[in-house]
Amino acid sequence: MKDSNFLKEHNARHLWHPMAHPGDMQANPPIIVTEAHGTRIRDIDGHEVVDAVGGLWNVNLGFSCEPVKKAITSQLDRLPYYSAFRGTTSDVIIELSELLHDFFSPDGLTRAFYTSGGGDSVETALRLARQYHKIKGDEGRFKFLSLKKGYHGTQFGGASVNGNSNFRKPYEPLLPGCYHIPSPYTYRNPFNETDAERLAQLCLSSLEDEIAFQGTDTIAAMIMEPVLGAGGVIVPHDTFMKGVREITAKHGILLISDEVITGFGRTGDWTGARHWGVQPDMATTAKAITNGYFPFGAVMICDSVAETFESGEASKAMIGHGYTYSGHPVGAAAALACIDETIKLQVQKNAAARGAELWCGIQALMERHEVIGDVRGGHGLMLALELVEDRESKAPAGKEVTEAIQAKAYQAGAMVRISGNNLLMSPPLVLTEQDVQIVLNALETGFSSVDR
Ligand SMILES: Cc1ncc(COP(=O)(O)O)c(C=O)c1O
């Protein structure tokens, strides 16, 4: 390893960072993380903090999960790679499919298609949705519906169903046939409705309206996150996803639950769809499936969709889609160990308990600090604080304010994430009570630094 002077000097010089302005990264170089253990990360200067970001919503079991590390290294020794394209498979991907079958059976999802990450899972689900209707002879169903504020990755398909213009405008034109429904976001919405249940009904009416306008027989699928993550942890009322399920089922539209964040326990339940009592037609997973240690994902598919493909005629039902790394044996070994450990530790229970403590804590912070316009969470370990210039106008807080809060909180012991004017938290699900206090104290320091 090069020494720290070299690394600091070359930080962001010849490397562009995702979701960042390359010039800004050169002017304000990112924190260089060099080590991590448990729920903590350590930077190049030896400063150690609780990682309230959990990597990127993915390191659910923390940074020292020995079973996952061992599974990766022993798989590398035994079979580092083999293809799963037609004609070959590997032992681990078969074993993993059985584990995934059992894990997702309560969601009605029984078949897996492997991918290399969340965006690939979304792309796969969208493509399979179109193909499903073609196999059935519904050639005209090619459109996709999704929620404003939703996030589904940055491939062209995912970006086209994304609901945040920052991830869309620079890359337009996107895929034709993608339409967006208002999000159940009580703090800001076109209906000026602050009651979550009434807002859910209004958004559902908009969904019905859009379907009628587009024509039922033109729509392939609706994709949504059970709790919207990157869009600012938007927690819908508990009638919302059930309502979407009823409407989509009535119109023969497939429902894709994007579980890239919510899968494997983050909401306090094993999946987001299960959290709301809904069975989707497909679910996209990635991130925590390997605890973030290996890029891997899986699309889970329900019986009725599976049967359409499995009994479909060859010319229509052959899957002309896949990645070199679909079913990577090392990823599959990591996923097997990770899901075993996830179940053994019952991390969803700790997510619910620690999530409730953090939720209480951020509500108390809101009472003390005017810069916090809205707090969202209360369902496991995904939380957001929306920062504003003042509560009356709700004008989003500027970059100088949000970044100052983040920097102070970091110095005081917690890594939190800033996205627009939202401060986001998605810590490892193995977070301790002591970690929760460290995070809350660090946030207190951060917010006090900008109090007027
Ligand atoms: C809900 C959701 N879907 C899809 C993605 C894209 O995943 P990836 O970044 O692995 O492509 C993300 C990433 O954060 C996500 O949060």
Key descriptive features of the protein:
alpha/beta; Aspartate Aminotransferase, domain 1; Aspartate Aminotransferase, domain 2; 7-stranded mixed sheet; 4-stranded mixed sheet; 16 helices; binds pyridoxal-5'-phosphate
Care to describe what's here?
The chain is α/β, with parallel strands linked by helices. It folds into 2 domains: about 30-65 and about 345-450, Aspartate Aminotransferase, domain 1 (Alpha-Beta Complex), CATH 3.90.1150.10; about 65-345, Type I PLP-dependent aspartate aminotransferase-like (Major domain) (Aspartate Aminotransferase, domain 2, 3-Layer(aba) Sandwich). It has helices at about 5-10, 20-25, 55, 65-80, 90-105, 120-135, 155-160, 195-215, 240-250, 270-275, 305-310, 315, 330-345, 345-370, 400-410, 435-450; strands at about 35, 40-45, 50, 110-115, 145, 180, 220-225, 255-260, 280-285, 295-300, 370-375, 385, 415, 415-420, 420-425. The strands form 3 sheets. A 7-stranded mixed sheet has the order 4-10-9-8-7-5-6, with helices on both faces. It binds pyridoxal-5'-phosphate. The site of pyridoxal-5'-phosphate has 14 residues, from α6.
